[in-house]
Design brief:
The chain is built from seven helices and seven strands; from the N terminus they run αβββαβαβααβαβα. With 258 residues, it is of the alpha/beta class. β4, α3 (106-120) and β5 form a beta-alpha-beta unit.
Length: 258
Amino acid sequence: MTSHHPAVPAVPPQGTADRWFRVHRARVRPALRLVCFPHAGGTAQFFHGWPAHLPDEVELLAVRYPGRQDRLAEPCIDAMDAMADAVTEALAPHLDLPLALFGHSMGSAVAYEVTRRLEAGGLRPVRLLVSGRAAPHRARPAGAADGDDAALVATVRELGDYQSEVYLIPELRELLLPALRADYRLIESYRPDTPVPVRTPITAYTGRDDATCPEEAVRGWADLTGPGHFDLRFFPGDHFYLVPHEAHLLADVAARLR
């Protein structure tokens, strides 16, 4: 693994790191940082229970996308290049240790693009872990980015029961829809025909009943890393399989970070 730092600014703009990452259970002497990217409409809070299942030497940084929770007043980002550039820049102070990246759904694609940028700067992550997402060149748009609010909410609710009921509460829907819509614009406008392979090994996870992730489309991630550097793991469940199977998923993740 190449250890020198990527060619990104050593010190990000004031406050960037604080805004962009929530450290879930900071470690005194971490040996590795796991950077986790939420799904469309998701927040850093999604990963709050994960450190309890990870080895003590792994520190978890959860990405805080703008336009939600304590970044609610900031404008949302609805373009992949802008999002991946911003996260990569914000990671600059955290590159003193090896990194692994985990993304769920939209977060998988963002994590892959950040991995590309880190490698271009000279740092190869230990592993890229992608969940609930077809490979970038195999993904099919849901067609919800520019539909009305009802269509967008219906698309989200079809993915599974995880917290989708919040969109049925008018006050919460009004608060949450701008970020959700921006995320769908980001992921549905991201259609690389020939995505660039990375040298980082890739592990893909998916729920067996996730209609958004046909097996052959998930296996397409194998095209984006070297021979023998891809593996795929299935779990029971839908798009949010990782909620009921959190402990088993993280046991697998931890094993791949050793």
